[in-house]
Amino acid sequence: MMAAHQPEPADTRRNDRRGVAARARDVFHAFEHLVGGLSTALLALAALVWLAVAGLTCVIGVGLLLLPTVPRVVRSVAERERDRLSRWGPEIVRLGPAPTGVRAALTDPAVRRELCWILAHGTLGLFLGVAGLTMVLNAVQNITYPLWWRALPAEDPTPTLVFWDVRDDAGAMAVAILGVGMAACFLVLGTGMARLQAWPGRRLLAPTADVDLSLRIAELSATRAAALDAHAAELRRIERSLHDGAQNRLVAVTVMLGAARRALARDRPDAEDMLERAQETAEQALAELRTVVRGILPPVLADRGLAGALAGLAANCGVPCRVDVDALGRCPASIEATAYFVTAEALTNISKHSRARHATVTVRREGDRLSLRIEDDGVGGADERHGSGLTGIRSRVEAHDGRLTLTSPPGGPTALEVELSCGS
After folding, report:
1. What is a single molecular function from GO for this protein (predicted)?
2. Model confidence over 73-125: pLDDT tens digits?
3. What is the dihedral of CA 12, 13, 14, 18, to 10 degrees?
4. pLDDT at 225 over 70
5. Domain boundaries, the chain
6. What CATH number labels 299-421?
7. How far is residue 214's CA from residue 82's CA, in Å, rounded to a whole number?
8. Over 70: is that where the pLDDT of 19 sits?
């Protein structure tokens, strides 16, 4: 019986380093989410105070003037939270201006849900944000405390959240151990705290069923228009490629063949050279026609499937790229072509702009959804608003009613996630 293949020690160490790096990124993102949530929680608390002031001053008449501003204040704060949550996960659609008038606002389900969110986020979200920020800052302070505690005033050298007097190095080391404990607590609890802080917003700020349906109809209309625009752009590209390339070369072949025929009739010695040039031009026209055909639907998809086609793209990438495909069965040809072109454009961007050392393409199929993830360890900062080719990728994905999520903070890493419906 053959022994199961054991990973090499170098592979094990590399996997361990990747796991530690992924865990470190998760903890850093959790801290970043908590701090971002703290900012919107402070705004939510201010909105709660404004609501209380408007309600209490109604007894003297001033509140009647303030009440119409409450829905606008609440909607403004809620929209900021929608934007924040959309940057860190599935998009939450903005709802636009709040209803005018107190009665219209009170009868609007979205406003009532936003009021509930204001109450939850202005209290629980604020607490979680403060707790996370305090935990991290005190962990950093206490871990480094033995390095600088002697520079503190002799009468008050004890740091915050320490319940004993620090008079010697042993006491300072005890503070450092407390800091390590705080850091360990945040490593364990930080991600859960960030999720709990975001949960009311995910639950209450998402569009209601009727609003979601109307937004879905508008989204499908926009998707259909984008599909038609993408189709027209593709036809223009093909027409331009044929007109500027193969057609011109075929015209040149015709001219050269006519000249060669006349040269042969006159028994001129340069007739053979003309025929050779005509043959070379015809071969170039044939090569350009093949390029145009590959741009319509790459033959490699039919020959080798999506996994083989993506492996070919990775082999030609300017950055070392690993492909991991686990997608049982074939998807519709248009979906596989979209995944192929998205990967090709993304790897081209990585080669040109990312300054990355490694890239990874991961493909998974779960039910009727094909998930594609392309990530690199480059400098980040990718923005589809700055003409980086990402706009074309999004248009191609949305033409198939897919979803694209880009995460590319300055300094990296960059991750492009695409979901496409491929049928069951």
Report:
1. phosphorelay sensor kinase activity
2. 999 999 999 988 888 777 787 877 888 777 888 888 888 899 999 999 999 99
3. 100
4. no
5. 22-205, 210-295, 299-421
6. 3.30.565.10
7. 18
8. no
What residue type is assigned to position 326 of the chain? Answer: D
